Amino acid sequence: MDTKKVLLNDADIPKYWYNILPDMPTPLNPPLNPQTQKPLTPDDLKIFPNAIIEQEMSTQREIPIPEKVREIYSIWRPTPLVRAYNLEKALGTPAKIYYKNESVSPAGSHKPNTAIAQAYYNKMEGVNTLTTETGAGQWGSALALAGSLLDMNIRVYMVKVSYNQKPFRKSMIHLWGAEVFASPSDKTQTGREALKEDPDNPGSLGLAISEAVEDAATHEGTNYALGSVLNHVLLHQTVIGLEAKKQFEMIGDYPDVILAPCGGGSNLGGIGLPFMRDKINGKDVKIVAVEPASCPTLTKGIFHYDYADVAKMTPLLLMFTLGHNFMPPSIHAGGLRYHGDSPILSQLRKDGLLDAVAYKQTEVFEAGMLFAKTEGIIPAPETCHAIKGAIDEAIKAKEEQKEKTILINFSGHGHFDMASYDTFLSGLMEDYEYPKEKVEEALHYLPNIEEV
Ligand SMILES: Cc1ncc(COP(=O)(O)O)c(C=O)c1O
Questions:
Q1: Is residue 184 part of a domain?
Q2: Residue of 133, 295, 382 to mutate, ligand 1, most atoms within 8 A of C-beta
Q3: Which of 45, 133, 143, 319 could disulfide-pair with 208, CB 3.0 to 4.6 Å?
Q4: Where in the sequence is the domain holding 88, given as residue range(s)?
Q5: Do 189 and 338 reside in the same domain of the chain?
Q6: Over the stretch 323-373, which tens digit does the pLDDT of each residue have?
Q7: Residue 451's pLDDT band (boundaries 50, 70, 90)?
Q8: 153 and 104 in one domain?
């Protein structure tokens, strides 16, 4: 029997996270204070613990993973690298397709890799309450899990459209002892204003971030945790790529193409950055962000300073953006409905080191269904994007009769996304065109700042 899974031992859980900042060909422009528009100082980041602020700006290449965090990681890490033989066969491709299965975490996605680390550092600095936003519910449930394992209070603002689509994500969050509110909510000034303007506002990640930041800023002993975008989040996620590199070494192979769904960029950064280091040093590897056509930040956005949230409370980041008040269509991949992208990935994209493609949601669900039927696991709608990208790469390899090694980050399972699959199966799923006019309108509101 051919080897299906490449497995590591508990002792192989990485001891360091990989920080790409010292290896970036173009150094990152600094985040700016939203009021003064001057580079941020650590004082501007008071809603984060000091250890996280240090990591956000660190130029140390390897950052030690605390033993307690490794111990909690061992509940599900190292995750398997799996060869998708049946999918290869169905496609009749000479390509080898591997997936790194991050769906085996208790919350069902890659998100606990940073949730555990962030909760741990807050706890170490005496902060016992964290607020956050969640799109698809994966991040909110990951932080709720972290709160449960580290005995902390968690308050989650969940984008309303996902809150209604995924009632069992809510149950999971409750089961782990956290609170969850539909965003926009009546709990914050920002939420109340959004509801006054439009009581049917479906919410967006940008809006939910504003609510969670406002909650943390207005409550004593409460910090905020972000599930994507920022440098420290991508840093914590590099355990994925570090393990995958070791697993490829074990089988004497190396990926030609790496694909991951891209919302704020954390799982793509997680799997891709350790390989990006090799690419910067001359290795031939293609790293691809897969986005929804209705929210195509890296494929159609512009590289500009912008706010990370709707209410302009967060620092200004230099990134690819569709405009902070762009409200993406209510697609089923809630975790990809974000107007911006990680500054690290944005800079790499600008420097021509990162590829990006965008797909419509029905073709993405078709890809997910083929994966479920051949490999058995039902992917999250976000993950289906990477699968669609990988299938296209595998078909290209077939047309060119080329051997190729493809790596997918299998960022999450879709067990709580069955309502979306039902919509797809009943033929009722809508495809949204790229909302060109809405984006053009949103881009008018970009802050008037050039690179510094
Ligand atoms: C399963 C899954 N994949 C991907 C994403 C996209 O987020 P990111 O780009 O930060 O990895 C999400 C976000 O919620 C998710 O839940």
A1: yes
A2: 382
A3: 133
A4: 72-108+233-443
A5: no
A6: 998 988 888 888 899 999 999 999 999 999 999 999 999 999 999 999 999
A7: low
A8: no
